[in-house]
Amino acid sequence: MNSSFSSQQHLLQIAWDATSLDLFKTCPRKYQLSIIYGKSSRDESVHLTFGILYHEAQNLFEKILHEPYKESREQAMIQVVRWLLESTWDFSLGRPWDSGDSNKNRFTLVRSFVWHALHYEKDVAKTLIIDGRPATELSFQYQTSKKSLDGEPYIICGHLDRLVETNGQVFDLDYKTTKYNVLSQEFFEFYSPDNQMSLYSFAGKIIYNTQLQGIIIDAAQIMVGFTRFRRGFTQRTPGQIEEWYRETTDYWLPLAESCARRQYWPMNDTACGRYGGCQFRGICGKDPKTRDEWLEASFKTRVWDPLKVRGDI
Amino acid sequence: MTSPLADVQNSLQELFNRNPKDLSDEDVLKICEILRAQKGAFDEEETKPKAKKKPATPDLNLEDLGL
Asked: Cis ω on the peptide bond leading into residue A68 (within 30° of 0)?
């Protein structure tokens, strides 16, 4: 049961997070296979597992550093490393998680967390405290004014990694793990325009009602022999946020509803080669009659429920 | 005879291959210390002047974000 879908139209998604919207905007067929069918490749699963554990480790670290635990940095680091080691250990088989990926694996995960904690030991970005708790992993759900044809209001949802304060100004800080070179000129340019960052800007301004100055992208380049960190910044003006919201509710969501009602999600065959190639390229490249068999044979099934799960595909 | 670097690597690998429930806080701290030393070596390498290095975008200086 996927709680983000309509109770009346079972193929119609009502609660939309950045991942679902990204996929639909990129290619409706990709969205269909990934979100509606819940298909996931081993490669995607590794990135997702790695990303979730990295985020959770950062979140746990921040919690232990602050009230009510208020541990020393060293003690907090030991606790989080222990948590990571246990989270990546298969106790039933008595062996560690084998990701099969030379860049994203158990060792590089622990190393990246420890190196990040050391790299930002004297960070000027201080975690915001809201109601006595560190502002990390903030879930949001916003009921839009847009309704489906059956009258169900659409929801925009997601999680903000961390709100930080520096010089009296508040920023959303978003963790990213990547294999791409974070030193390159272009790396941070990809975040404007960018659907996820616009959605987070919307959340920060409208939902949390904070004077959010922008988003700090806390990037970690994960390689076999090292993890490199760099931060970039992206900002949306009120006009840009309004434009994103209007386009989402007036154009993209009705388009998604139209696909759901027709039970047909067309292929955007100009997007197949992006970011090193779509995981479903091998499926879509086959004759339509044989695709289902290939899909069953090569992909795992999982449920992507934005109202529950945490992570980025 | 193994090199000190290889000894450290083997020691790290041995700790990673052990059931985490059997690791003491000292063992976990040792992992952190080895990783700290590895980061130190990496940072030193990163700051060495490199020939024909591509111009990089400057890291975000949060103190300069006086928007």
From this structure: yes
